[in-house]
Amino acid sequence: MTYRVFLQQTAEDSYKATPLAFPDCVAVGKTRDEALANLKAALDGRLSQGEIVTVEAGEPEHPWLKWAGVFKDDPTFDEFLAEIEAYRREIDKNDATWEPVRR
């Protein structure tokens, strides 16, 4: 896994590394590389004690809801609907003369 890390130089001429995902997991070192290596070891130790899972909370979103209002600001949408209506009327007109095949 990849983590974004806040790395800062301290007043004691050492470095402090804190992963943004785990602000309570802090590692220090005399050099930048040492602080990062210590943080990697701390994260490996912490992650070996558990697992990362995904949890859904609340009611699931209706799958069509993400498309609601997508054409709200589209200036050509009314023309598009008119074309669909004309096409459907043409289909209906052609279907009116259609006769089923009799066997």
Structure report:
With 103 residues, the protein is α+β, with helices and mostly antiparallel strands. It has 2 domains: 43 residues, no CATH class; 32 residues. The protein has 2 helices and 3 strands; from the N terminus they run E-E-E-H-H. The chain has a 3-stranded antiparallel sheet with strand order 1-2-3, covered by helices on one side. The chain is elongated and about 90 Å long.
Structural class label: alpha+beta
Content of β-strand: 5-15%
Shape: elongated
Whole-number total of structural domains? 2
Radius of gyration: 31 Å
Separation of the first and last Cα atoms:
67 Å
> Main β-sheet, in a few words?
3 strands, antiparallel
The SSE string, one letter per element, is EEEHH
Number of helices: 2
Quick check: average pLDDT?
90
List the strand order in the largest sheet.
1-2-3
Structure in a nutshell:
This protein is of the alpha+beta class and 103 residues long. The protein is 35% helix and 13% strand.
